[in-house]
Amino acid sequence: MAGRSTGLPTQKQVIELLGGEFVRAGYEIEDVVIDDRPRPPHITVIADGDKPLDLDTVAELSRSASALLDSLDSDDPYVLEVTSPGVERPLTTEKHFRRAHGRKVDAELVDGTIVTGRLGTVSDGAVDLVVRARGDWAVRRIPLAEIVKAVVQVEFSPPKPRELELAGAAGTEAGA
């Protein structure tokens, strides 16, 4: 396929056009997916930041992104979606680990072992992982270079206060 016949902007154009607006709101565009198969075509902007993307922020970013995209020289209709990467996205950069601070993760290490723990501090190319060891909580420092894959886990029950305390996560309770 030589090019788009729909007159839609390219991924690069969308990122250049919307990037500044997202940064001002405290988010970065991680990816833009343009699907011109459905009618009308869909433009999905995936954004992430140090604070989670909530519904009010999604609505605000969607309005401003739509206005900016509408200013392009195209009359073609499209569907715009602004979303977060989702929990199934693997953590691949120090920034991803930092943003997932306090969350429970499964991490596969270069030696093939799987470590499950709560993300603590990320610094100097390593992460503190709060793990269960001999019936108690312990902090294990793991270089990011030794992590092959890490994925945030969905939790159905609240974490233990001591586990959160060791991870340095907000909302900890003392004395537990």
UniProtKB/TrEMBL annotation:
Presence of the UniProt keyword Cytoplasm in the record: yes
Subcellular location: Cytoplasm
Stretches assigned to the Ribosome maturation factor RimP C-terminal domain: 91-156
Residues of the Ribosome maturation factor RimP N-terminal domain: 24-88
Gene3D superfamilies: RimP-like superfamily, N-terminal
Classification via PANTHER family: RIBOSOME MATURATION FACTOR RIMP
Function: Required for maturation of 30S ribosomal subunits.
Protein name: Ribosome maturation factor RimP
Species of provenance: Mycolicibacterium sphagni
Native organism taxonomy: Bacteria, Bacillati, Actinomycetota, Actinomycetes, Mycobacteriales
Gene: rimP
